[in-house]
User: What shape does this take?
Amino acid sequence: MILAIDIGGTSVKTGLVDESGLLHAKHEADVCFDGYRTPILDTVIREAHAFLRRENAKVSGIGISATGQVDDTLGVVIGTNGSIPGYEGAALKEVFEREFALETHVLNDANAAVLGEAFAGRAIGLSNVLMVTLGTGVGGGIVLGGRIYGGTRGIAGELGHFPLYADGLPCPCGGRGCFEAYASTSALVRLAKEATGEDKLTGRIVFSRAQAGDAAMLRVLDRWIGDIAAGLSGLVHIFNPQMILIGGGVSAQEELLIKPLKKRVLQTVMPRFGEGLRVESASLGNDAGLIGAAKFFLDRTAAS
Assistant: This one.
C-alpha cells in the first residue's frame, strides 16, 4: 500500500492506494484555515500522520502530487504563483523522507492527474495521452509511452501557456495570447459578459442558458470551443496522442462541450492524426492526483 498525498492551495488530500491503482481510503483537510500562519508543510505532515494512525496503515512509500512547478527528480517546488507563503523552494522529497523514513517521490498535480487517468481512469491501457483541465486557468499533463513526460526538470506540461494568438490578450503568466487566456472558464465568462453587457455571469449560468436555447450563449460557447479546439489541434500535431482528456467541472457538459469539441478537433487536424483519436471527459475527478501520485511512486521505484 502507498500513502498518496495531494497538496493543493486550499486543501490536502491523503489516501491509501494499492499497486493496481485502487483507492482504499482517503481524507481531506484544510491547509489555509488560519491564513497560512501555520506553514502549509506543517499542516500536511500533521494530517498525513493522523491519517496513517486513523487507518492503522502500514505503507511501503509515499507519492506526492503537489501544486506548483515541481522538479520531479529532486522533489522540490521550484516555482509557484506566490499565493502560498513559504511554499516555493520546499524540498518535499527530503522533508517527507526524513519525517516518515519512507522513500518518497513528488510530481506536479496536473501531471499526477493525467498519470492517474492513464493508470486507473478513463485512459486506462493507453500509452499516449494528453489531459487539459479547464477551470479558472488551464492546466495539463502529458503521458508518452505510458510514463509522464516532465521534460528536463519535470515541469513540462504547462499546456495553458503556449501562445494561441500572437500579441493576444495578457496572461497572468506574463505572456500574451496564451491558450489559458482563451480556453479557461474565465475566458468563457469574459466572452459572455462582452456579448451581453451583464456583469454577474458565471460558467454555470452560461451553460444553463445555452442548454435552454439562448442564442447569444450558444454563439459564445461556439467561439470558446473554437479556441479550445485550435489549441488542442496544435497539440495533437505535436504529440499524436491516442486520447485527449478534458478535466475540470465543465467536463461534465457532454452535449454542450465534449461532443462539439471532439467534432471541431477532428475537423481541424490532419486526417491521419485523427484516426482513432478520442476526446473524452476525465473520470477520476478529485481522486486523480492521489492515484497518479501512487503510480509515479511505483514507476520511480521500479526504475531504480
Summary: The mean pLDDT is 95.
